[in-house]
């Protein structure tokens, strides 16, 4: 059981093509969150997933495999996407995610997770939303992970998440 609670450093909404005053999700809207993954995060993920690959825990094993340092699990990094979506849309159901791992993430890297709404479709009393997803490293243009996600949203009204969640 993890005793540490994750507190996001930054959770933002950017408007690319829609009105700044609206709190209703529109195609083109971008949701962002920054996070630094720690050794404790990696250990906690390994305890839950049972992925004890030495590349995540032993610096020498990681270097022998051609990496600079110990790696953060790629699936742990990708967990930023449902977190970002559900922070704005409590009750969202994550339906699918494609992932392309482009570059390694090391413990201590500053990662910016970005989801951008690409299509919105109403069905019954819910909405099917498709998003492009991307993580970038250390305030650069280096993409470490990208793909697409689909989620069922209970509505299109975005909550402004608190930084103490």
CATH architecture: Roll
User: What number is the mean pLDDT?
Assistant: 87
SS strand fraction: 35-45%
- Give the helices and strands as they follow along the chain: EEHHHHEEEE
Distance between the termini: 18 Å
For the biggest sheet, the summary is: 6 strands, antiparallel
Gyration radius, in Å: 17 Å
Low-confidence stretches are: 1-22
Helix content: 10-25%
Secondary structure: number of strands: 6
How many distinct helices?
Answer: 4
CATH class: Alpha Beta
Question: Which class of secondary structure composition applies to the elements?
Answer: alpha+beta
According to CATH, the homologous superfamily is Hotdog Thioesterase
Shape: elongated
CATH topology: Thiol Ester Dehydrase, Chain A
In order across it, which strands form the biggest sheet?
1-2-4-5-6-3
Count of discrete structural domains:
1
Protein name: MaoC-like domain-containing protein
InterPro entries: HotDog_dom_sf, MaoC-like_dom, UPF0336/Enoyl-CoA_hydratase
Domain MaoC-like: 33-124
Pfam families: MaoC_dehydratas (PF01575)
Keywords summarizing the entry:
165 residues, alpha+beta, Thiol Ester Dehydrase, Chain A, six-stranded antiparallel beta sheet, 4 helices, MaoC-like domain-containing protein
Give a description of the structure:
- The chain has 4 helices and 6 strands, in the order E-E-H-H-H-H-E-E-E-E.
- With 165 residues, the protein is an alpha+beta fold.
- It has one domain: Hotdog Thioesterase (Thiol Ester Dehydrase, Chain A, Roll), CATH 3.10.129.10.
- A 6-stranded antiparallel beta sheet has the order 1-2-4-5-6-3.
- A hairpin with a 2-residue loop joins strand 4 (110-123) and strand 5.
- It is elongated, with a radius of gyration of 17 Å.
- The two termini are 18 Å apart.
- Residues 33-124 form the MaoC-like domain.
- InterPro entries: HotDog_dom_sf, MaoC-like_dom, UPF0336/Enoyl-CoA_hydratase.
- This is MaoC-like domain-containing protein.
């Amino acid at each position: 059981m993890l005793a540490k609670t994750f507190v996001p450093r930054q959770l933002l909404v950017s408007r690319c093509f829609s009105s700044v005053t609206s709190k209703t999700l529109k195609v083109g809207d971008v949701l962002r969150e920054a996070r630094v993954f720690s050794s404790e995060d990696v250990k906690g993920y390994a305890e839950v997933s049972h992925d004890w690959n030495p590349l995540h825990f032993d610096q020498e094993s990681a270097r022998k495999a051609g990496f600079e340092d110990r790696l953060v699990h790629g699936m742990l990094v990708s967990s930023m996407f449902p977190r970002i979506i559900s922070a704005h849309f409590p009750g969202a159901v994550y339906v699918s995610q494609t992932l392309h791992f482009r570059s390694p993430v090391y413990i201590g890297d500053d990662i910016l997770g970005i989801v951008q709404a690409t299509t919105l479709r109403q069905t019954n009393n819910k909405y099917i939303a498709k998003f492009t997803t991307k993580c970038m490293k250390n305030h650069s243009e280096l993409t470490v992970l990208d793909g697409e996600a689909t989620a069922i949203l209970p509505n299109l009204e975005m909550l402004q998440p608190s930084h103490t969640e």
